Amino acid sequence: MKGIVFLFDGQGAFKPGVGRELYGKYPPAQKVIDRSSEILGFDLKDHLWGAAAAATSGRTSVAQPAIAVVSLAYAEVLKEMGVTAEVALGHSLGEASALAYCGALSFDDGIRMIQMRGKLMEKGGKEGGMMAVVNVELPILDQECKKISGAINQALVVANINAPGQIVVSGSKDGLKQLTAFVSQNHGRSIPLDVGGAWHSPFLKEASEEFSQFLDKLNFVKPPVKFYSVVEEKILDDARTIRDAFKKQMLARVNWVQAIENLKSMGYGQFLEIGPGKILKDLVVKIASDIKVDTVAVYTDLQILVQVFK
Fold first, then answer.
1. How many Å separate Cα 132 from the centre of its chain?
2. Which of the ends of the chain has fewer CB neighbours closer than 10 A, N or C?
3. For the chain, domain boundaries
4. Quick one: the chain helix, strand, coil %, rounded to 5?
5. Exposure string over 224-254, b if 16+ CB within 10 A, otherwise e
6. Which CATH number fits domain 4-124+203-309: 3.30.70.100, 3.90.1150.10, 3.40.366.10, 3.40.50.920?
7. Backbone angles phi, psi at 157, to 5 degrees
8. Long-range own/partner contacts, residues 107-110 (CB < 8 A, 24 or more apart)
């Protein structure tokens, strides 16, 4: 069997208190969080479990580096214990964390890149929103989004394909309101998401262009760990190709179903969610129930997890 696949959490994994136990128990995690605080220019601990933590989820510019750094701290602890990934990928924000983990950028540049992504998305996506849709087929949903978008001349797109029958739509608030009625008429269910904006939609076009210019200033290298690009739906190992793929990432659809199915077809059968959530584990189970998958978030003692994956 091939090696372990690391799955890095997205922004939705944040809740006040994440990382506190990890920081208190494992010195490698302390180093990652403290060094990241220096790079970010503020004490990340305050926004993870301190006085400012209650407001973190509503601030994309803070929540994104917060989740990414906690995820990278988990990965560093596992590395010290002898568990590393053969391939890494991530869901939305998690793709930036995966890039940093794989070594496509230096650690410092990886944290700066994640911080810039959060800042630009916070600035650029506020006008719209996102909504999960359950039990409406993708082709039907795609077609209706295009129909509504054309009628009101406002962006509305399928942003995430998370699991069979579980899709996220992103775009204008008026468009989402109209789509809610359509979903109800088609015996589906719509769930508004508490996010900072219309991620992975044309609302982020200007932010994406600015982010692309920022990426051009960073030194990308061939990563020592394989990086699976959710955007390109394959493993990338060339520095320029990785940079170009990530330039598209803010606007691109997150096809998580295809990512897991592709990796399974390549022979990967061990997946580990890296971060404070268990959302990705649950999605993998829905996509391919025969895959071995776990999450670091449910272990108070990571040594127990290590015995399973080492």
1. 16
2. N
3. 4-124+203-309, 129-195
4. 50, 15, 30
5. ebbbbbbbbeeebeeeebbbbbbbebbbbbb
6. 3.40.366.10
7. -140, 155
8. 107/35, 108/39, 109/218, 109/219, 110/72
- DSSP string covering 35-93: HHHHHHTS-HHHHHTSTTHHHHTT-HHHHHHHHHHHHHHHHHHHHHTT---SEEEESTH
Q: Indicate whether 1 pLDDT > 70.
A: no
**What does the pLDDT look like over 153-205, one tens digit per residue?**
999 999 999 999 899 999 999 999 999 999 999 999 999 998 888 999 999 99
Tokens of 119: 């800042």
pLDDT in tens, 99-141: 999 999 999 999 999 999 999 999 876 789 999 999 999 999 9
**What mean pLDDT comes out for the span 23-43?**
97
